[in-house]
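Exercise 3.2. Students should predict the tertiary structure of the chain below and write it as structure tokens, then compare their answer with the key that follows.

Predict this chain's 3D structure.
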Amino acid sequence: MKNQRCFWITCTLLIAQLQVQMGIAQNTQTSTDSRLVRYEQYVYGLPTPNDSTPIVRRFNTYPSPTELIERTEQFQAGGWVPQGRSSSTYDDQQRLLLNTQEGYNAATKQYTPILRYQLFPKGANSLVDSSLSYNWNAIGNKWDLVQRIKGIYNNLGQLVETQSSAFIAGQVYQSKALYFYDAAKNNTKTETYDIQGGVSILNGFAVYTIENGKLANSTNYSVSPTKDTLPAGRLVNQYTSSGLVSKAESFFWDLTAQNWLLLAITENEYDANQRLSSRVFSFVQLNQKGRSDFFYTAKNDIAIDVNYRWNAATTSWKLESKGFYFYDQASSLQSAGSQARSLAISPNPSAGKIRLDLPINSSFQVFNTAGILISSGQMNQQNGEIDLSLFPAGLYWIRAREGTTNFVGRVIKQ
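Answer key:
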């Protein structure tokens, strides 16, 4: 039973990691700075195969150039019911400073605080000095600090260490991560430690293989209290000739067989404009797979996503849901009809700092998958760097501009 539990924990972690790596998380911004104002999703097959039923919708409002409010509603019993609200605040450089998550209380018809995330920029660039996470204490009617992360940089501006403190039930749990780089400034290894009684205890590490500025594979290891090193998970990437991920395979380590077993595969297809047009995700161990097709506006914003599930009995794809995106074009970064170029980012994925292949003085913006702008700035050197180390793990979109030329790329923060 213990081995089975470990297997499923490993599967869950690897699936989550692979989904983030390949951009399974819903992206609401793709390659322009059009502002998303509404998203709607419909499911199919309920109650009959050809019926579509609304399930969720989200509204974005922008009270000021430095504020974004997202409201989410769910379709229940024939009507729309509020579910939650997210409020974000930025500084004048459009760097995320504060994000607050709230849930909707149907009884009081009010939003109730749940989580808060606060960032402190480092200087006038894209680096982050520290971050704080809070949970709402309904009894004390106050925010309780639950995690603090501090970044330490060397004289080259590279993140070399993050120090974390978690506050749980009156106890403080400390940990840290160390980051190592090669001569080309690629993050090639990350080590994680628990800190007990002031002593750092290695609990795991990850090794990244970078080829031509791109992540070829990564392997995670766990370290037991007896200092035994055990493989945990592995990701292997393949790329198109233009440098986009075409295939990613996820493996887990079978303790009994003492070898790597294929867990999942994600395969991407792109259109002539290098936009993601289709993605197939296969869970090999359960013989299940799904597919998502993507359609775009004339300005390269995602317009519709169509999602299918493979039906083994009929050997065909079954339509499950569709998502529709609506924008205003008030703050478009690029003029109508212009085409964004692919942006080279390395290492990708990365545990912290990334390098952008951009001309000097190019401007850039970093967005999370909710379309929230979290960082912006200007390149001050060839192959300039951006530090994402203090942001949550996940998929981020980077858009840049140099003169009249626009660039777009995606990066995975591990």
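Discussion points: Residues 2-21 form the longest helix (20 residues). Residues 176 and 249 are 29 Å apart (CA to CA).
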